[in-house]
């Protein structure tokens, strides 16, 4: 997904926690609509995510270590899709149980 500058994440505690690209999974980024080369602090145009709490969000933009710049919300997943992804992720991280 990174070649297209698209990021999939979940809003948790007001933070955008990345799921994709996989190389960034588990890290958080703040979102700003400001261009990367702007000479103002990115906080001036920070996107507040409270209304998306607990939801999956697809965002486009240009990421650095802390921010996704020129961020645009592409799609917000519904409650059903978010619940399904949560279940799949829970299953993916469970240790294997051996049955004797």
Number of strands: 5
C-alpha end-to-end distance: 41 Å
Share of β-strand residues: 35-45%
What is the overall shape? elongated
User: What's the alpha carbon Rg, rounded to whole Å?
Assistant: 15 Å
Q: Given the helix and strand composition, which structural class is it?
A: alpha+beta
Q: Output the strand order for the largest sheet.
A: 1-2-3-5-4
H and E string: EEEEEH
Largest sheet, described in full?
5 strands, mixed, barrel
Number of domains: 1
Average predicted confidence as pLDDT: 90
Helix content: 10-25%
Low-pLDDT segments, ≥5 res:
none
The count of helical stretches stands at 1
Structure description:
The chain is of the alpha+beta class. The protein has one domain. About 15% of the residues lie in helices and about 35% in strands. The protein has one helix spanning about 80-95; strands at about 5-10, 15-20, 30, 55-65, 65-75. A 5-stranded mixed barrel has the order 1-2-3-5-4.
Provide a brief overview of the structure.
By secondary structure, the protein is an alpha+beta fold. The chain has 1 helix and 5 strands.
Record the SSE blueprint.
Blueprint: E1 6-12, E2 15-20, E3 28-31, E4 56-63, E5 67-76, H1 79-93
Parallel strand pairs: 3-5
Antiparallel strand pairs: 1-2, 1-4, 2-3, 4-5
